[in-house]
Design brief:
heterodimer; A: alpha/beta; Alkaline Phosphatase, subunit A; 9-stranded mixed sheet; 3-stranded antiparallel sheet; 14 helices; 12 strands; B: mainly alpha; two-stranded antiparallel ribbon; two-stranded antiparallel sheet; 26 helices; 4 strands
Chain lengths: 459, 521
């Protein structure tokens, strides 16, 4: 049985106002990150979950052939045109990209930095937003109450990370992502500028913060741990952010909360705190109504936000030498399900099944991947939806193995068994380890003493 | 063996259960105000008697004198709370008013929820209103929902939450707010929209637990009474057809049935057959009957109420008891009151503690209850605006959850750092904010009695105000150390004369609101 150490932030930060204060003004750089060449995996995985079920058939759609005919007749108002000013931009001559996405992503596609998967999703159909999201976030289709998220299990089982990382995981938004459920070292924050206690009676702020640390450090319940996470996060932000953030390479993030969240990811990556996993959401895809005709309207705007944010993050992290973060960056975009082939009477689309996924990476292979199931009546799932030909876990597993160097698929995705790479990204292949048994997966030295806060998984 | 599905983040030990009074005020209310615990304890000679008496008061809110709270609501100067549904539409939609006037009913309900949470003696009503608003969640800022928000809060939620579930369901189904939010208002025979029908079954009644996925209706097993044990996608599509033509009149803001939009052919939903060409509305009403009276709905609602009132993972015994009462009372006009009473008088309610934590709304309101903050919550008070802005950042702005499932009700969704940090910020702001005349809205120093002057006394006085019970010694000692700042904690501190010490006392009270103990429910 493999013996795996998980990185801990706590080994460095715990108890630490004084320890951290002594380092004020310094960066943690190689100390925490594991310098290049150290043998540690240095990849950062960013997951973007599109809540509500994005209409993937209007992101990537057939440009010609019989399927173009089915597409156009099913979507008389919503179809993205194949010609004209607002036409879809061809990816490979067969499939096109919505112009709002192409505006930002097509140059990256042409550079081979964007891989598109055609018909991915849950192997077993579920048209409930909430079930389907839980299945994917927890990485356990069919079980919506698994106690840990798939990203938490990835961090717990990766055996190629340094023993200590200052900020292994980041969840941008108002709450910690379900995919990171159970990971106690995750920093959850929305806005770094307001992530502090610099408010209220000023004279006793430091003493108050120390008292809070002692109160939340005084017991070992999940409630106490979550309080310490907040305090640790404040320490890290305070020590490492100085002044306004300026994106590199002239990158411009969309002027909305998604743009802000993407910028926070870049900001945290560049602090060299060792960020390995970041999770964020973009909602607003449940377009039952008025999603916008052709290439315009609401959907186009929302898709533009997504694409602009992705391109900005990539541009911002693009560089050279050790600072070329984009080489170590993989962004994966997923949603709980696609939508019906047929538009509804409200010029929207109802819940469907198969959907596109996107992988943006400095180490991507580029291109269109996966098997297109077709749009003919006999080819549709349940006579209504794009079928699923690629299990979403196959896409994520390829990133885990080829980029993150973690082959413990049985632990990250219990019950998943037939992995093979689609060729979305470059990297070394490894034999998948499908054993779901976690025995021995955590080194004993992380289970005892004050670092043994992983009751999450170590029970 | 360690498996990823194993238990996660369970406390090693839960805090000791406090008295029934503390449990009652924290889980069927928003925390104790000064005097509440004593009044509760005067209701009987033991906890069971006291709790029974208190629950019976709370379950009959009309019997509780709430004039002081009513006076505050009057003083806030709200103008829309007494308008009928039709009047709201005339004044806030048809009159072609500004956005701020259009949305005024929403803002007034939002502020009223805070006022009542903080000041109403009918605490159970406020807890249940919050519960049912989330069960039948609507994004209240929606363009067509905000002007009618008084109607949705008053006529649909508050008007039915202690009444009959089937009647409540029909009120929801016919409210323009829900018809708009879940798109049924445009669902026609030519172009059905499944959004409402799906969430009606998945969220409002049977629950996703009983969703069998993509399967044919004939393949669904039957229960002992001949009903399908769960629902499939085809039930959703058939129910969608039943509700075609349920819409509202954009001139009046009232429910309207359009026979010309209705699919009149036969349908089958959950084993109920609807003959072709039924009378107006009959298909939809039949669906409401089928889902409201399905056994899975009884257990789904019972479990959710137990989750709100007792524990994130409520004991099956009390869920079963509540389910039985729900089913037996399905035609009673006080069915939901019976169910709630059963839960609150269960042994499980009385003996469970620490299986839930306060969410941001509960933190915000309970802190204000404990400390007597004087916000008017009127529309034009700038401090109220500032307070709500800070509150909203903690992640639970009222009536603002976008998806139809409502805010989550379990701790795993509220243990994140972001809401924690913003709640802490809100507490620090709360003890420091002054009005235009430089008066504190929550005057910690003024509220501290003259005989309470040592660090020990100050800490214990404010712990009692905030918690209504003692705090674990280790946690309390940190507060004492903070307040004493190196001085002997039995010596008087210069609260009356020294500004720095006054500031420290304000920070202390905030610190108590930020403590782990303040979060347990």
């Amino acid at each position: 049985m493999v013996r795996i150490k998980r990185p801990t932030r706590r080994g460095f930060v715990v108890g630490c106002s004084a320890a951290i204060a002594g380092m004020a003004g310094t960066r943690f750089n190689n100390f925490a990150f594991g310098a290049p060449g150290s043998g540690h995996n240095e990849e950062t995985l960013v997951t973007i979950f599109l809540r509500g079920g994005i209409d993937g058939l209007n992101v990537v759609m057939p440009l010609g052939g019989p399927d173009r005919g089915y597409y156009e007749s099913a979507r008389p108002d919503l179809k993205v045109p194949a010609s004209g000013v607002e036409k879809a931009i061809s990816l490979d001559g067969v499939f096109g990209l919505h112009p709002s996405a192409a505006q930002w992503l097509h140059p990256l596609y042409q550079d081979g930095r964007l891989s598109v998967v055609l018909a991915a999703g849950l192997d077993e159909a579920n048209r409930s937003h909430f079930d389907a999201q839980e299945y994917m976030d927890r990485g356990t289709p069919g079980n919506r109450t698994t106690a840990t998220g798939w990203l938490a299990r990835h961090l717990a089982s990766a055996d190629n990370l340094p023993a200590e990382i200052v900020m292994p995981a980041l969840s941008v938004g108002n709450t910690q992502a379900t995919s990171l459920l159970g990971d106690r070292d995750t920093i959850n924050l929305n806005d770094p500028d307001s992530y502090n206690l610099e408010i209220g009676p000023w004279r006793w702020r430091d003493a108050q913060r120390m008292a809070l640390r002692h109160m939340y450090g005084g017991d070992n319940t999940w409630l106490h741990t979550s309080g310490l996470q907040a305090l640790d996060g404040m320490d890290l932000i305070e020590l490492n952010t100085t002044g306004a953030y300026t994106p590199a390479n002239g990158a411009t993030y969309p002027n909305n909360s998604f743009g802000d969240a993407m910028q926070v990811v870049a900001q945290m990556v560049k602090l060299d705190l060792g960020l390995r996993v970041a999770s964020l959401d973009l909602g607003g895809w449940d377009t039952h109504n008025g999603q916008g005709d052709g290439s315009g309207g609401y959907f186009a705007g929302q898709l533009g936000t997504l694409a602009e944010g992705m391109a900005a993050l990539y541009t911002d992290l693009d560089g050279s030498g050790a600072a070329d973060y984009s080489q170590r960056l993989t962004v994966v975009v997923q949603s709980e399900f696609g939508r019906r082939l047929y538009q509804n009477a409200d010029r929207g689309t109802d819940h469907g099944h198969g959907n596109m996924m996107m992988v943006l990476s400095g180490s991507a292979n580029g291109g269109v991947h996966g098997t297109w199931p077709g749009l003919a009546p006999g080819q549709l799932f349940d006579s209504a939806d794009l079928a699923v030909t690629t299990d979403f876990r196959q896409v994520l597993s390829e990133i885990l193995i080829r980029r993150m160097g973690n082959n413990h698929l049985g632990f990250v995705f219990p019950g998943y068994s037939n992995y093979s790479p689609l060729g979305l990204v470059s990297g070394a292949d490894m034999e998948p380890d499908y054993s779901a048994d976690g025995t021995g997966i955590f080194a004993d030295d992380f289970e005892t003493g004050e670092f043994g806060r992983w009751s999450a998984i170590t029970g | 063996m360690r498996l990823p599905g194993a238990q996660v983040m369970q406390p090693k030990a839960l805090p000791e259960p406090p008295s029934a009074a503390v449990i009652a005020f924290n889980r069927m209310g928003f925390g104790p105000r000064p005097g509440d615990i004593a009044a509760f304890n005067a209701l009987g000679s033991n906890d069971v008697d006291r709790l029974t008496a208190y629950v019976d008061q709370q379950i009959s809110p009309g019997s509780i004198d709430d004039s002081a709270c009513d006076a505050r609501i009057s003083a806030a100067g709200f103008t829309t709370l007494n308008k009928s549904q039709a009047q709201l539409w005339q004044d806030h939609v048809e009159a072609d008013v500004s956005w701020s006037e259009r949305i005024r009913p929403f803002y007034e309900i939002e502020r009223m929820a805070f006022l009542r949470g903080v000041h109403s003696k009918r605490q159970l009503v406020e807890v249940l209103t919050d519960f049912w608003h989330n069960h039948f969640n609507i994004y209240g800022y929606d363009y067509w929902c905000a002007p009618l928000w008084v109607h949705y809060d008053r006529d649909v939620i508050r008007g039915n939450q202690l009444g009959n579930f089937r009647e409540m369901l029909e009120a929801v189904a016919k409210s323009p707010c829900m018809l708009y939010y879940l798109d049924n208002y445009t669902s026609t025979n030519a172009g059905p929209n499944e959004n409402w029908a799906r969430e009606l079954i998945e969220l409002h009644t049977l629950g996703a637990k009983n969703y069998l996925g993509v399967m044919r209706q004939v393949d669904v097993p039957l229960d002992g009474t001949g009903k399908p044990v769960g629902y499939v996608d085809d039930d959703v599509f058939e129910a969608t057809r039943c509700f075609t033509g349920w819409t509202f009149d954009f001139d009046t803001g009232l429910f309207e049935y359009r026979s010309d939009w209705h699919d009149h052919f036969q349908k089958t939903v959950l084993g109920s057959y609807m003959a072709p060409n039924q009378a107006a509305l009959a298909d939809g009403l039949d669906v409401l009957d089928a889902v409201a009276f399905h056994p899975a709905t009884a257990s789904h609602i019972a479990e959710k109420l137990c989750r709100r009132l007792i524990s994130d993972d409520p004991p099956q015994t009390v869920v079963d008891a509540a389910t039985a009462v729900f089913e037996a009372g399905q035609n009673d006009s006080d069915q939901l009151a019976q169910v709630v009473r059963t839960i609150l008088l269960s042994e499980e309610f009385r003996t469970t503690w620490g299986e839930k934590i306060k969410r941001p709304f509960e933190v915000a309101v309970s802190a204000m209850r404990a400390a007597g903050a004087e916000f008017s919550f009127s529309i034009d008070e700038s401090e109220t605006d500032s307070y709500l802005w800070r509150y909203d950042q903690a992640g639970q702005p009222l009536f603002s959850w976008r998806a139809p499932n409502g805010y989550p009700d379990v701790k795993e969704d509220w243990q994140s750092a972001t809401p924690r940090v913003h709640l802490w910020r809100m507490c620090n702001w709360l003890v420091d904010v002054e009005d235009d005349s430089d008066n504190f809205l929550l005057d910690v120093v003024d509220q501290t009695p003259a005989h309470v002057r040592t660090a020990n006394e100050l800490v214990d006085f404010w712990i009692d105000r905030a918690l209504g019970r003692a705090m674990p010694a280790a946690e309390r000692s940190e507060l004492v150390e903070f307040m004493a700042q190196g001085h002997n904690p039995t010596y008087d501190l210069p609260i009356d004369s020294d500004f720095d010490t006054q500031e420290r006392l304000r920070s202390l009270v905030s610190l108590i609101f930020m403590s782990p103990s303040f979060l347990w429910r």
